[in-house]
Each structure stands twice: as structure tokens, then as C-alpha cells.
């Protein structure tokens, strides 16, 4: 690799805090930032991360608890002298059926997927002393209507517009805020439809690139938005969906 490319995308000396780091997209992004030279701390509600390379950088934290998360931010600040990168990858999807309280499901989903993201952005930004990059993970559900999960779609749509609002509000402090918009990526959240032959085929038929995404497919987008290569990029939706949202007939 040329020294030019290394310098352009290097995260050497940068400090990254990643939520949702126990598994899936969050864990893979944390690993990609670590390999790109960043000092990282990743958090999640789970006791441990499934990615062995992250065990020394992992802390348990409920991001919906502002006191807990602010303590993590203070810890990172004391350890490294500030925060340069925040990745909000934590998120949930809750099934609702005839026996569940749909309003309760809706409120719980918005609390974790939207309200907590806002809180994390505000709290972590207080420690971005020299500017920074905030990366929020949304979904193609933030741009299109999908059936039977209004709480998830609404929450991700809210994050999409929250990002644009905060990109403006934080711009005076040199903090960039952007979205990564995954399509169908194979994770614990999507494995039930992946393992269903009919649903799997329906989804692949909608893609231009005829395969499900892997969590590694998100890594390049994350490194780009975290690095100086995207220094003039803020308020955008960087879609990584195999062509789903661009496909016509």
C-alpha cells in the first residue's frame, strides 16, 4: 500500500468509541477501526463481546442509561485525552404479535434506537475537543417502507434525520455527523429471514449484487467516514445495500 493511501485513511492516534460492540456490525466496525490504527473502546449491554480480538477493549454499558454512558466517555477521556470518533451501532428490533403491547414495543424500540443515539451523540461530543466524526448506523428501513415492523422503521428514519440536524448543530465545533445505511447484512438480527429459503430469495432478487452483505462489507465505509479521507463530508447517507434502494424493475 502506498504511503499516500495509508496517510489518507490512517486512524493512527485517533480515539474511537463504538456502541453495539458485542457482535454484528458494531463489533466488525470496532475491529476495522482498531486495525486502522485507532485506540478503541467498544460497549454494549452484553457481558462480553463475541469477537475475541476486542476483549481487551470492551466494556459493558447500557447506552440508554445516560449516567453509565457518560462515565464511559469520561473514562475514555481520562485514558486517551479525548474522543475523536463515535460510532452508534447499537440497536434492537422487537417482534410484536397479537399478544404483545404494540405501543410498548414501539416506545422501547425508539428509546434504544433513537433517543439513546441522540444522548450518546450529545454526551460524546462534549469530549471531542479537536473536532470529530460521528457515524450513525441506520438501515434501508430509514428510507423505505417495510412491513410489520413500524417501530424499527420509524426509529431508523428518526436517526437518519437526527444525523442531518446534528451535522448542522455540531459543525461549528468541527464535528462531522454521517449515516451508514446497511441493506440486508447477515447478523443475528437478520438470520431468521436469511435461513428461510423463500424470504432469502425474495431479498436477493431485490439486490443488484446478488448476495447478502457481510458485516465486513461495512468496514470500508466506516473507515472512510472516520478518517481524514472524508474531511469534507457531513450530513450524508452512505448506502451499503447491494443496490437495493437504487433498483427499479
Major pleated sheet:
7 strands, parallel
Fraction of residues in H or I helices? 40-55%
State the CATH superfamily name.
NAD(P)-binding Rossmann-like Domain
> Could you tell me the number of beta strands?
7
Average of pLDDT: 96
Q: Which class do the helix and strand fractions yield? A: alpha/beta
Strand content: 5-15%
CATH topology, by name, is: Rossmann fold
**Biggest β-sheet: strands ordered side by side in the sheet:** 3-2-1-4-5-6-7
The CATH class designation is Alpha Beta
Provide the gyration radius in Å.
Answer: 18 Å
Q: What is the chain-wise order of helices and strands? A: HEHEEHEHEHEHHHE
Q: How far apart lie the N and C ends?
A: 40 Å
The count of helical stretches stands at 8
Q: How would you explain this protein's 3D organization?
A:
The chain is an alpha/beta fold. It has a single domain, classed as NAD(P)-binding Rossmann-like Domain (Rossmann fold, 3-Layer(aba) Sandwich). The chain contains eight helices and seven strands. A seven-stranded parallel sheet has the order 3-2-1-4-5-6-7, with helices on both faces. α5 links the parallel β5 and β6. The longest helix has 24 residues.
Amino acid at each position: 500500500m502506498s504511503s499516500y493511501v495509508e496517510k489518507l485513511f490512517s486512524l493512527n492516534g485517533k480515539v474511537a468509541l463504538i456502541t453495539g460492540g458485542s457482535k454484528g456490525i458494531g463489533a466488525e466496525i470496532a475491529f476495522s477501526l482498531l486495525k486502522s490504527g485507532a485506540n478503541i473502546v467498544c460497549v454494549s449491554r452484553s457481558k462480553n463481546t463475541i469477537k475475541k480480538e476486542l476483549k481487551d477493549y470492551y466494556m459493558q454499558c447500557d447506552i440508554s442509561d445516560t449516567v453509565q454512558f457518560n462515565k464511559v466517555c469520561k473514562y475514555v477521556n481520562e485514558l486517551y485525552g479525548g474522543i475523536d470518533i463515535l460510532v452508534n451501532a447499537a440497536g434492537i428490533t422487537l417482534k410484536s404479535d397479537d399478544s404483545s403491547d404494540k405501543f410498548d414495543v414501539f416506545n422501547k424500540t425508539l428509546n434504544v434506537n433513537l433517543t439513546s443515539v441522540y444522548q450518546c451523540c450529545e454526551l460524546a461530543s462534549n469530549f471531542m475537543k479537536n473536532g470529530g466524526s460521528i457515524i450513525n448506523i441506520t438501515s434501508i428501513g430509514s428510507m423505505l417502507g417495510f412491513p410489520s415492523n413500524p417501530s424499527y422503521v420509524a426509529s431508523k428514519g428518526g436517526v437518519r434525520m437526527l444525523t442531518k440536524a446534528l451535522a448542522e448543530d455540531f459543525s461549528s465545533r468541527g464535528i462531522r455527523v454521517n449515516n451508514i445505511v446497511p441493506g440486508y447484512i447477515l447478523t443475528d438480527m437478520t438470520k431468521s429471514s436469511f435461513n428461510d429459503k423463500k424470504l432469502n430469495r425474495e431479498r436477493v432478487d431485490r439486490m443488484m449484487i446478488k448476495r447478502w452483505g457481510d458485516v465486513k462489507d461495512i468496514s470500508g465505509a466506516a473507515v472512510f467516514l472516520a478518517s481524514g479521507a472524508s474531511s469534507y463530508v457531513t450530513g450524508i447517507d452512505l448506502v451499503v445495500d447491494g443496490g437495493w434502494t437504487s433498483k427499479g424493475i
